[in-house]
Amino acid sequence: MKKIILSTFTVALAANAAHAQLSAYTPERNQLIASVAYQYQRYDEFWAGTNSVSLKLATGFREQQQHSTFLTLEYGILDDLALDVTVGYSWATFVGGPGNDLTDDGLTDTSFGLRYRAIDERKFAWLPTVTLRVGGIVNGTYDDAFPFSSGDGADAIETSALLAKQLCPGLGLYGEIGYRWRNNDVPDDLFGAVGLAVTYIKDVTLSVGYRHTEGQSGPDIGSPGFGVDFGFPQVKEVDQRIEASLGYTDGGGRNYSLYFAQTLVGQNTGEKSIFGLSVSIPFGGSGPEPSPSYKK
Q1: Which among 135, 186, 269, 280 could disulfide-bond with 182, CB atoms 3.0 to 4.6 Å apart, if both were Cys?
Q2: 5 phi and psi angles, rounded to 5 deg
Q3: pLDDT value at position 286?
Q4: Would you say residue 18 has pLDDT above 70?
Q5: Tens-place pLDDT, residues 46-58
């Protein structure tokens, strides 16, 4: 039987979040899915407030580069209930300044959560799969004062709803909407995404989408008090980006993906280009999920 095409590991890592974007399709009962990912991102322009600024003109550095590695574990407790945890490490460098390069490294924010599949499209042909997630974030060991570091040095609680729907054989829809509450005077985040996935060759899936993260409060870079009363973690950050991934799933359910994301419009964030690759390996279970059944 054909797979639900969105059950392949479709991923676009957010620049300032530790975890890969999770799927509405949860692992099977007693199934463990281990996913490893590497991500490279760079930018040479950023937004101070809503004004675009050249990094070289503002600081004398040519560009910022960041390398990150992540490990995500997902475990199916029940058929519709799963745990997830993601840990990672990052290295960031300001390149080509008037003196030595500036560098920072450390553990990324660790995220964990519980997902419950509330609606299964295989049982209700006219509805999408809807999975509810509640989770937390523990801040990492990076320097949060480093401009546009791998995190904001804050713990958090977050909730979200993940959606997926096979519209017809070979075409699927995915989406997400959520909210993140953070401490240490770091603004809360409203976040969401929507995209399409197409299986155009057997077991090869291409996805394209739009992702939006918006801080709910905070001043701008360069506004009065910046660098004295508050720093980069406290500013209002907005990131609107496009994302795409190309994935292949072999006969054993292992998925191999390449992905790309580009910030199009922002506020107090870098104009980032993000490249990555990931491998996802399932242990246990009976293999990939079957396609939705619309029979009563």
Answers
A1: 186
A2: -65, -25
A3: 65
A4: no
A5: 999 999 999 999 8
Question: 71: which strand partners?
Answer: 36, 87
Quote the pTM value.
Answer: 0.89
pLDDT at 189 exceeding the cut of 90: yes
Q: Please spell the DSSP secondary structure of the chain, one letter per residue.
A: -PBPGGGS------TT-SSPPPPSSPPPTT-EEEEEEEEEEEESEEEETTEEEEHHHHHS--EEEEEEEEEEEEEEEETTEEEEEEEEEEEEEEES-SSSPEEEEEEPPEEEEEEEEEE-TTT-TTS-EEEEEEEEEE--SS-TTSTT-S--S--EEEEEEEEEEEEETTEEEEEEEEEEEESTTPPPEEEEEEEEEEEEETTEEEEEEEEEEEESS---TTSTTBTTTB-GGGS--EEEEEEEEEEEE-TTS-EEEEEEEEEEEEESSB--EEEEEEEEEEESSSSSPBPP----
Confidence label for 120 from pLDDT (cuts 50, 70 and 90): very high
- What's residue 20's pLDDT? 55
| Tokens 């675009």 sit on residue | 52
Give the chain's length.
296
- What is the C-alpha separation between 64 and 216, in angstroms, rounded? 26
